[in-house]
Amino acid sequence: MVGNGLTYRLSAPMAFGFRGGDGLNKTELIGAVVKGTGQSKKVVGNVVDEVINQVQKNVKKGEKVSLPGFGTFERRQRGARTARNLAPARASR
Fold this sequence. Notes:
By secondary structure, this protein is α+β, with helices and mostly antiparallel strands. About 35% of the residues lie in helices and about 15% in strands. The chain is built from 2 helices and 3 strands, in the order βααββ. It is extended.
């Protein structure tokens, strides 16, 4: 969830084997691409950063970004939700 009630959703296919758990963070992704391509960590990091920037830029404009075999990113407006504090306001005696 991002401010102003906007939500960014990623639909990733199961082909990648992401079924929960810790997943893959950005550093691990960069390391895997470096290992697979032989490119430098700096070059791969710059490419990953630019891909993320382009996806964010286009989603912010309201465009749907679809990367076949990976996922779909889109901006959705959601209604406000009521927050609840489950902890008591003060300690009871």
